[in-house]
Amino acid sequence: MATKFAIITGASTGIGFELASLAAKDGYDLLLVADEALINDAAADIKQFGTDVQALEADLSTTDGVDQLLSAAGSRQIDLLCANAGHGLGHGFLDQSVADWRHVIDTNITGTLYLLQKTLPAMVSRDDGKVLVTGSIAGYIPGAFQAVYNGSKAFIDSFTEALRNEIKESKGVTLTTLMPGPVETEFFDRADMMDTSVGVNPNKSDPADVAKDGWDAVMAGKTTIVSGWKNKVQVAMTGVVPPSMLAEQHRKMAEPGTADQ
């Protein structure tokens, strides 16, 4: 059993899987969590690095799912939490079912906040621990045809900034917000966005690169990291471009039927 223990959510594929690989290589025992059975295959792959790896299939959009995670962690001290679970949703808001947009909000916001509220107090109490929360540059952009997702990430980007301030006296606790742009993962397929320009864009970021940016940032104690220079430029532009223009630009990327445009 390693002396270090990490929990990584959304770890079955993409950024979460790559974060799990980095953590295992650094000697962390792991609890990997996702809402699909593929998490078991991911854990089997990560075991090659020689640490103890536990898999849990749980729906982190619910407090019950987060409680399952906490129960699986047991009494082990959580040295690192990567709150990476997230869910996207494409198409116009008026065309979306209540169940679908609520699942995005409950996964991206409710589950994330509940997990942080349950794990951070122990870190703050002992003045030691690291947390990486996956936000997004989408939080800076009014997301036409992806409005609920972008809005949820705006909440996370803002919330983590506020929470960092609230716990700033705990110098040994690192809370880092990772803000990637579009990443080459199953995100766009799951969000039903493969008929959009951004969904089929071949120039999306590599999840391994994004995970490495996030890993280096949380280990260095940084507050935020925008992954990729193009995304850094885009975030900078949001401060000068009118929101209505940003929404129109996003529409060109995310509106259904724009894949061939």
From TrEMBL:
<protein>
    <submittedName>
        <fullName>SDR family NAD(P)-dependent oxidoreductase</fullName>
    </submittedName>
</protein>
<dbReference type="Pfam" id="PF00106">
    <property type="entry name" value="adh_short"/>
</dbReference>
<keyword id="KW-0560">Oxidoreductase</keyword>
<dbReference type="GO" id="GO:0016491">
    <property type="term" value="F:oxidoreductase activity"/>
</dbReference>
<comment type="similarity">
    <text>Belongs to the short-chain dehydrogenases/reductases (SDR) family.</text>
</comment>
<dbReference type="InterPro" id="IPR020904">
    <property type="entry name" value="Sc_DH/Rdtase_CS"/>
</dbReference>
<dbReference type="InterPro" id="IPR002347">
    <property type="entry name" value="SDR_fam"/>
</dbReference>
<dbReference type="InterPro" id="IPR036291">
    <property type="entry name" value="NAD(P)-bd_dom_sf"/>
</dbReference>
